[in-house]
Each structure stands twice: as C-alpha cells, then as structure tokens.
Amino acid sequence: MKQNKKYLFLSLFLLICCGSPSKKENLDKDDDFYEKCRKLILSENKIGQEYQFSLIGKKLDQIHLKYLGNIITSKNDTLKIVNSQNLFGLSEESKRGNGSVYIYNTKNKFIGAYFLGDYWGVPLKIEGQNLIFSYKNEFCNQTTKISLKDSIPKQIFVQCTKDGGDIYNLETVHN
Question: What is the CA radius of gyration of the chain?
Fold first, then answer.
C-alpha cells in the first residue's frame, strides 16, 4: 500500500512539474512547489473545486487549495482568487496550519496575496465583487466583506469579534 501511495505522489509531482503542454504554459521553472500547485488548479479552471497536495518527507507538509472564482473589477479586469491552506509539522500530532488568499490575473500571473495566519481564516466565497470572510466559532463570530471592485486594497481588516479583528497587508512579491 505504501508503495502505491509513493507512486501516486510521484505521478502527481511529475504531472505538476511536467504536465501537458496546455497546462504547462503558465508554469515557470522558477516557481516553487506551492506556486506550481496554485497555477495547476487555475489552469483546470474549476471554480469551487478543492485540491490537496502533499510533499513526502520526514515532515508533514500538505497544501489544500480552492479556486474561489473570479472578480470583475470596475475597470473590467478579471481577478482570480485562490484560497490556500497549509498544514505542516514534524508529525500528525504536532501539525500547525496557516491560510492565505492569492490573487492572479486572467493569464494566471501572480498579483498579490494576503497571508492570514489562521488555517481557517480564508474567505468562504465571493459575492459580486467582494471576498466574504465569515466566522462562526468559539473565537470569532463576524462576517466581513472586502471589496475588490475598484482596486486591490493594500491592507484589509477582517472582523473577528464585535471588539476587534486583524489587519493583513497585500504582499506583491513572491519569495
């Protein structure tokens, strides 16, 4: 069974790295594993589809991706939105996670990202030209709409409770 999993992950890795010519056109050889995964799901163009990728090694490293959809701005530009949730750790028992929102243009070129910290902090959906962050748990219970109608904000404030929330900066450079 372990051997079959190994071949499945190897096949998936080769698909990501090599891919078919139509899917490969947007993959840059300098992109890291995570960026290749994001570009692969964008090339699939399946809004709402969830994907999971894993790196096999001595540590746990999984990425869960979901292509939320497109926002058409007032300037008629199309923004493609991808949720990214990463789990990592030395073992299943010690895993931690973080979440991010990535923004791409129609050619699947990276525009920017908000690194949210919390695994569950990603927006749930797109409504019109807004990203919808909605929390209903023991720590957070608010909904926040972030408009991308006229521009991509350099900073966003996501409400957690009636008394506060978090500010996130748009990061425009890939590491």
Answer: 17
Whether the model pTM is above 0.70: yes
pLDDT of res. 1: 45
Distance of CA 83 to the CA centre of its chain: 3
Q: How confident is the model at residue 28 (pLDDT cuts 50, 70, 90)?
A: low
Q: How far is CA 34 from the centre of its chain?
A: 9
DSSP the chain: -HHHHHHHHHHHHHHHHT--HHHHTT--TT--HHHHHHHHHHHHT-TT-EEEEE--SSSEEEEEEEEEEEEE-TTS-EEEEEEEEEEEESSGGG-EEEEEEEEE-TT--EEEEEE-SSTT-S--EEETTEEEEE--SSS---EEEEE-SS---SEEEEEEETTEEEEEEEE-S--
Name the residue with higher pLDDT: 41 or 174. Answer: 41
With pLDDT > 90 as the criterion, what percentage of the chain qualifies? 64
Domain boundaries, the chain: 48-171
Q: 93: buried, middle or exposed (CB in 10 Å: 19+, 13-18, 0-12)?
A: exposed
